[in-house]
Structure formats: structure tokens, C-alpha cells
């Protein structure tokens, strides 16, 4: 009696076949978010795809590919760090519709300006502001979760700070001689003071 090959050794042809619907859905959602983050400057395409053709390797080898729209998609390592960061942000943004199931979701973004030119920084800021506005303008039936998204951005970029209303800015600075951290609004009035 001949033993059958272990399931992980069976080769299946994946390239050229239709992608599973979950990958197609992920590709569509991330492409939409990435388009919102990069349109107007250098629109990007991204695709989650299989890097190899064996079943064993499929689980280990899923890779994103990224390139300017219209160019051949390449491995993420061939992209600039700024666009790689935007791709990561796009994957997080895909999860934001789940905010509808909570009263408040904090979307924390650390230094979104990193490795981006000023024009793209402003597009990212506009995109983040729009996501917050969309959630605050939604009509919520009584007794349902509010589904609000609050975007909190830490930045060193004067471009980003110039792009928002001063009433939305909080300046955090350390007063080392006095042993505390002080946060103040853009007008300089203290908003919070705590021990280090």
C-alpha cells in the first residue's frame, strides 16, 4: 500500500487562479484607504499576493507589493519608507469601520510626517481630519454606540501643526527644573499638569 504525500507537500497552483475572497476584500479596502492617503501627489497601488506556489509556503509568504499607480508592483522593500508607513496606516484604517461598535475609538498616529514630503504630509492630515469628521457627523440611533473616532497625532512637523485649527493643538513640554510635564493649548494656557 502506497502512503499518500503529506498535505503540506501537495503543490497547488495559486498564481493565475482567482484569489480567495478575503484577500480580494483586503486588497480593495487597503487600495481605497491608500488612494485616499496618496491621491493628488503620487497615487499608489498595493496588492497582497502569494509569494510562492506551495501550500506550505503560502501561510509564510504573504507579502504586500507597492508602486506608483500604473507601474509594476514590487516588494515592499523596494518602496520608500514613507510609502511603506502609509501602507501600514492604510491597513489600520481598514479596521476603522469597527469603530461603529464603540462609543469612542482613539486613532493614535505617531509622527505621520516621517519620510514624507510636505505636500503628502498635508494630504495625510486632510485624510485623518476627514475620517474624524465623518464619524462625528454620522447620525446615531438612540441607544446605539456613538461610533466616534478621535484622531490624536504626535508630530514635530510645522506643516501639520499649521494645517489644523489652534484650538485642536496641545503643546507638551517638560519642565525639568520643576519636575513636571505641562500640556497647554496653542494659546499657552495650561490644560494638564502631572508629576514625572
Q: Which characteristics define this entry?
A:
single chain, 196 residues, alpha+beta, 3 domains, 3-stranded antiparallel beta sheet, disordered N terminus
Q: What Rg, in angstroms, do the CA atoms define?
A: 22 Å
> Could you describe the largest sheet, including whether it forms a barrel?
3 strands, antiparallel
Query: What is the CA–CA distance across the termini?
Result: 73 Å
Run of helices and strands: HEHEEHEHEHEEE
Number of strands: 8
Beta-strand content bin: 15-25%
Which geometry do the CA atoms define? globular
Cross-sheet strand order for the largest sheet: 1-2-3
Percentage of residues assigned to helices: 25-40%
Mean pLDDT, to the nearest integer, reads 76
How many structurally independent domains? 3
Count of helix runs? 5
Structural classification: alpha+beta
Poorly predicted residue ranges: 1-16
Q: Would you give an account of this structure?
A:
The protein is α+β, with helices and mostly antiparallel strands and 196 residues long. It has three domains: 1-94, no CATH class; 98-164, no CATH class; 167-196, no CATH class. The protein contains five helices and eight strands, in the order αβαββαβαβαβββ. It has helices spanning 21-38, 55-61, 81-93, 118-137, 158-162; strands spanning 44-50, 62-68, 74-75, 104-110, 148-154, 170-175, 180-185, 190-195. A three-stranded antiparallel β-sheet has the order 1-2-3. A three-stranded antiparallel β-sheet has the order 6-7-8, with no helix packed on it. Helix 4 (118-137) links the parallel strand 4 and strand 5. The longest helix has 20 residues, at 118-137. It is globular, with a radius of gyration of 22 Å. The model is unreliable at 1-16 (pLDDT under 50).
Amino acid at each position: 500500500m502506497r502512503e499518500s504525500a503529506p498535505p503540506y507537500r501537495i503543490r497547488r497552483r495559486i498564481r493565475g487562479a482567482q484569489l480567495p475572497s478575503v484577500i480580494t476584500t483586503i486588497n480593495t479596502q487597503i487600495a481605497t484607504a491608500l488612494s485616499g492617503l496618496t491621491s493628488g501627489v503620487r497615487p499608489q497601488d498595493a496588492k497582497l499576493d502569494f509569494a510562492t506556489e506551495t501550500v506550505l509556503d503560502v501561510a509564510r509568504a504573504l507579502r504586500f507589493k507597492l508602486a506608483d499607480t500604473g507601474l509594476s508592483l514590487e516588494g515592499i522593500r523596494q518602496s520608500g519608507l514613507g510609502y511603506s508607513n502609509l501602507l501600514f496606516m492604510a491597513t489600520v484604517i481598514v479596521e476603522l469601520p469597527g469603530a461603529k461598535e464603540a462609543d469612542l475609538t482613539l486613532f493614535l498616529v505617531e509622527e505621520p510626517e516621517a519620510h514624507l514630503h510636505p505636500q503628502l504630509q498635508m494630504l495625510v492630515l486632510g485624510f485623518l481630519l476627514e475620517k474624524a469628521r465623518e464619524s462625528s457627523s454620522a447620525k446615531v440611533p438612540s441607544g446605539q454606540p456613538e461610533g466616534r473616532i478621535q484622531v490624536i497625532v504626535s508630530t514635530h512637523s510645522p506643516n501639520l501643526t499649521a494645517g489644523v485649527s489652534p484650538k485642536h493643538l496641545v503643546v507638551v513640554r517638560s519642565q525639568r527644573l520643576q519636575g513636571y510635564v505641562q500640556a497647554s493649548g496653542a494659546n499657552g494656557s495650561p490644560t494638564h499638569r502631572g508629576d514625572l
